[in-house]
Amino acid sequence: MKPFDFCPSCATGLEVSEDGEGKTCPHCRRSWYPNSSPTAGCVIVANGRALVTERAKDPEKGKFDVPGGFLKAGEDVLDGLRREVKEELGVEIDVTFDDFVQAIPHEYGDEGDFVLAMGFRARMTSGQPEAADDVEALRWVSLDELDDVPFAWEHDRVLVRRGLEEA
Ligand SMILES: [Zn+2]
Q1: Looking at the predicted structure, is the pLDDT value of residue 110 above 70?
Q2: How far is CA 139 from each of CA 27, 56, 86, rounded to the nearest angstrom?
Q3: Using CA atoms, how far apart are residues 143 and 163, in angstroms rounded to an integer?
Q4: Which of 9, 78, 163, 165 is the most buried (most CB within 10 A)?
């Protein structure tokens, strides 16, 4: 996010921190530093096709990404991924750290927010996927169709390609 100008706690004007990388409140002495927010997403492949999701909300509304989302503070990465997939698609997945594919930092929206997007392979274990929550629609894509999918972020295309090639 854009750096705060005023202390969120006491509303005193913030100063640049001593190391120059963050902001410090001269009253509370608390400091804030810009960080990437971690997300976890997954490629799910069945019958030679991968599941991609159309975004229902901005940023990048109407473009595609993969099932997943932001982790809560202190949340286990795989628990967070399972929770997000359940919320978005209504299905359970099997995923372990052996399924880890990539971790890509990227700008999210146009407010200066940064995300660290972790990508995994995952397998559906129960349920029939249906779009819910911040997913507008689902699409199953083959390797041949992958280049034509309007992904919000290119690293998701890379993740989906890896999933399809290794399936
Ligand atoms: Zn303060």
Answers
A1: yes
A2: 52, 14, 17
A3: 10
A4: 163
Ligand 1 midpoint to CA 13 (Å): 8
DSSP-assigned states of every residue in 119-163: EEEEEEEES-----TTEEEEEEE-GGGGGGS-BSSHHHHHHHHHH
User: Around ion ligand 1, which residues have CB less than 5 A away?
Assistant: 7, 9-10, 12, 25, 27-28
Provide the pLDDT confidence category of residue 4 given band limits of 50, 70 and 90: confident
Judge: domain 36-166, CATH 3.90.79.10.
yes
CA 11 / ligand 1 centre spacing (Å): 6
Distance between CA atoms of residues 13 and 24, nearest Å: 9
The answer to whether residue 108 scores a pLDDT higher than 90 is: yes
Domain ranges of the chain: 1-33, 36-166
pTM of this structure:
0.90
pLDDT mean over 6-28 = 93
Over residues 32-60, the pLDDT tens digits come to 998 999 999 999 999 999 999 999 999 99
CA 31 to ligand 1 centroid distance, Å:
9
Cα 22 to averaged position of ligand 1 atoms, centre (Å)? 14
